[in-house]
Design brief:
Layout lengths: L4 H6 L1 E5 L1 H18 L6 E6 L3 H13 L5 E8 L11 E4 L9 E9 L3 H12 L4 E10 L12 E6 L4 E2 L15 E4 L1 H6 L1
Parallel strand pairs: 2-3, 2-5, 5-6, 6-7
Antiparallel strand pairs: 1-9, 3-4, 8-9
The structure holds 1-O-pyrophosphono-5-O-phosphono-alpha-D-ribofuranose and guanine (GUN).
């Protein structure tokens, strides 16, 4: 059922505040700068949800003297719904990946199907190394085997979350916090 953002805010709990999220992104940067020292990776933002996280992460690694070549892709399997389906590619990066190292930036690693497909595609394009930076990792045992975030910000509970790029029915992506819908509210949708 369609609901507005005010309903989602009233039927959710704060999971991580802005200061915690910003600090978790800053904390990822030194490991990235160390692991990619001497390289300029292709920095692929996974739209739409990865946008706020990727922008902030780029500034953090840039402040450490590391450069990134920006590009983006859009692959979606939720399409504004609260459970995932088949993955649809809406945009593929134009930058040739052959021989390049790639850093993917996405808002959430949940069941891992999205990042699994993206990694496979990057490797098929000839990328030599593909790593994942994810702002949030959902805690459950349903993730695709072998998929993990090389750089992870915060854990989130096994509930539907939104904010900091993540949508509630395509709303709320600009919230600077992460909230989780109550399970009762999720059942109402
Ligand atoms: O680990 P998974 O279970 O595959 O889910 C994670 C993906 O789901 C979300 O994208 P979504 O399909 O909602 O597209 P959007 O970012 O455009 O909203 C999110 O941005 C991740 O890319
Ligand atoms: N907004 C949002 N997108 C997701 N994609 C995968 N899991 C989630 C989630 O909990 N919230």
């Amino acid at each position: 059922m369609a609901r507005d953002l005010a309903w989602a805010l009233a039927n959710s709990d704060l999971i991580h505040d802005r200061a915690t999220l910003d600090a978790s992104i800053a904390a990822m940067a030194p490991a990235i700068a160390r692991d990619f020292a001497g390289d300029v990776p292709v920095f692929l933002t996974v739209m739409h949800g990865g946008l706020p996280f990727a922008g902030r992460l780029a500034m953090e690694v840039g402040a450490l003297g590391m450069d990134l070549e920006f590009d983006y892709l859009h692959a979606t399997r939720y399409r504004g719904e609260t459970s995932g389906g088949a993955l649809t590619w809406k945009h593929r990066p134009a930058t040739p990946l052959r021989g390049r190292r790639v850093l993917l930036a996405d808002d959430i690693l949940d069941e891992g199907h999205t990042l699994d497909a993206i990694m496979r595609w990057c490797r098929a394009e000839g990328a030599t190394d593909v790593r994942i930076a994810a702002l949030a990792v959902k805690k459950h045992d349903r993730c695709v085997p072998g998929i993990r975030a090389d750089y992870a910000g915060v854990d989130v509970p096994d509930r539907y979350v939104f904010g900091y790029g993540m949508d509630f029915q395509q709303q709320g992506r600009a919230l600077p916090v992460i909230r989780a819908l109550t399970d009762e509210a999720l059942r109402e949708l």
